[in-house]
Amino acid sequence: MSPVGQTPAPMREDFAEILRLVRPGARVLDVGCGEGALLDLLVRHRNADARGLEISPEGVSACLARGLAVMQGDADRDLREFPTGAFDYVILSQTLQAVRDPRAVLSEMLRIGQRAIVSLPNFGHWRVRLDLLAHGRMPVTGALPEPWWSTPNIHLCTLADFIALAEDLGLTIEACAAFALGRPARPIKPSRGWENWRAEAALFLLRRQDAHS
Fold first, then answer.
1. What does the alpha-carbon distance between residue 206 and residue 119 come to, in Å, rounded to a whole number?
2. CB 28 within 8 A of CB 87
3. Contact call for residues 180 and 200 (beta carbons, < 8 A)
4. What is the pLDDT of residue 210?
5. What is the architecture of the domain spanning 13-207?
6. Which residues pair with 54 in a beta bridge?
7. Distance between CA atoms of 194 and 98, rounded to whole angstroms?
8. Which candidate in 104, 192, 195, 205 could, as Cys together with 174 as Cys, close a disulfide (CB 3.0–4.6 Å)?
9. What is the DSSP string of 57-109?
């Protein structure tokens, strides 16, 4: 509960979409779970058997203080330690662009989970293109708030780039939603070229092409 007289903080738009996609009671791994905000929502609103993987000791401590199941680990190195098919969903929220090997991480996610949910900023958004064209400098936007010299993002991509990677890995995009200007999720067909201009960030629900529904 929020303190008396205070309005609860609004839920992140991508978290709201993730809650809509995850079925009740599912086994979920949240990779790069931070201080456990999404984990807590999954447990409380979806009754999920939710666990987190977090690289920072501070994040792990914060999750444990909230009574959440979390382990310290690195997405680039430690996903391989999980058994195949251990989870119904593996989630990577606004983190894929910060890992060293996005292709390997995405492949491992779809090995250990029946489905993956991935959200990421879109470097093809029109504001990004306009900033580069007008100023010739790396843009700072709502989805990319850090300057280039301090950002953790090392593998930025566009929607078209991510779709190409998913196809190369043999993944099916079951659903996709776009985000812009703090508005709620907007379902899209990501293959439509104009969405690569309109979406400030996007969220994908993925499965392997050979996986059962």
1. 11
2. yes
3. yes
4. 79
5. 3-Layer(aba) Sandwich (3.40)
6. 72
7. 26
8. 205
9. HHHHHHHHHTT-EEEE--HHHHGGGSPTT-EEEEEEES-GGGSS-HHHHHHHH
